[in-house]
Amino acid sequence: MIALPRTNELGFFEIRLESIGGLGANLAGKMLAEAGVMGAGLNGVSFSSYGSEKKGSPVKAHIRFCDTDTSIRDTSPVERPHVIGIFHENLSRTVNVISGMYEDTIVLVNSKKSPEELKQSLKLISGTIAVVDATGISLEENNRVNMAMLGGLFRLCGFLDPEFMKGVVRKSLEKKYPGAVQPALNTFGRGFREVRFQTFGLAEGDSMPDFVRMDTPVLGYETQPLGGLITNPGNSILKDLSISRAGRLPHFADDKCIHCAACDNVCPDFCFVWDELPDKKGRPQMFLQGIDYQYCKGCLKCVQACPTDALSAELEADGYADGHRVPHRFNLVV
């Protein structure tokens, strides 16, 4: 049996995966647990928690390992993880993805940014930030993000055997999907090799924040304002769907657009911004001004519907959505 690098007071080494539906975090958690139990001879368990069961909604996968002399009788969510895997960088905008981390927790992020840049955006005080461009790798290898993230997680969890994982991939795919075996192995291997990481210690005068239990409702029976006042209505104006995009988003070329509204007819999230302007003969007509990327979840239905190639599916470059966003002008009645 392989020894775990560290454990908590109950004898558990714990991993939490932060993701969205459709990126395969649930399956990745199961594969991690199988590699620890069958490959490393540990006791292990994996389970997931999520809200609405749909693509793009937040998902958490929880994995626990311990030695064979320790029984796993805890099926509560992992709140103090030793390793955190963040499958979508933008999750940090709406979810506290580093909640409960220790001073030496390892945080693996699917991102093109440097560890130093992510330290600032995640507001990390101490720990190790590991970075792998899982989305870029998966698109290049025609595979899924979870295989690249698994490669990175195996690199960071030295007690797990990557060769065992490759055997699991072959066993799972070779009979029904033989053509998918090599792309999956390539994606896993690149995720393992291409991880970059940097460790940050506590600066003088800094200290880790006190642990606060996750998912405590902002408005509960103890925190609801008197009179039942709703301070933050959950309507579409306030929503940010950028966390739902999985690597691609539509680019808009105004010079190719004929303003036919085929894109708007298929868009499920009110992304397209229009303005009434005079046409060449002075008649009023609606002209497409651009895309409000705050509400774009990257479904790319608009690209398929566009008859003139004014919309194209492109890899999402850092800062592109914010720089090219055309905000809606809502008329709010107070």
Write the layout of secondary structure elements.
Layout: E1 13-20, H1 25-39, E2 43-50, E3 58-66, E4 83-86, E5 106-110, H2 115-122, E6 127-132, H3 134-141, H4 145-156, H5 162-173, H6 181-193, E7 196-200, E8 248-252, H7 262-266, E9 272-278, E10 284-291, H8 301-305, E11 311-315, H9 320-324
Parallel strand pairs: 1-4, 4-5, 5-6
Antiparallel strand pairs: 1-3, 2-3, 6-7, 8-11, 9-10
Helix pairs in contact: 1-4, 3-4, 3-6, 4-6, 5-6
What's the total helix number? 9
CATH architecture of the largest domain: 3-Layer(aba) Sandwich
Q: Percent range for helical residues?
A: 10-25%
Please tally the β strands and state the result. Answer: 11
Query: What is the overall shape?
Result: globular
Largest sheet: 7 strands, mixed
DSSP strand content? 15-25%
How many independent structural domains? 2
Name of the top-level CATH class of the largest domain? Alpha Beta
- The spatial strand order of the largest sheet comes to 2-3-1-4-5-6-7
Low-confidence stretches: none
Give me the CATH superfamily of the largest domain: Pyruvate-ferredoxin oxidoreductase, PFOR, domain III
Q: How confident overall, as mean pLDDT?
A: 87
Gyration radius, in Å: 23 Å
Structural class: alpha/beta
Order of helices and strands: EHEEEEHEHHHHEEHEEHEH
CATH topology assignment of the largest domain? Pyruvate-ferredoxin Oxidoreductase, domain 3
Termini Cα gap: 65 Å
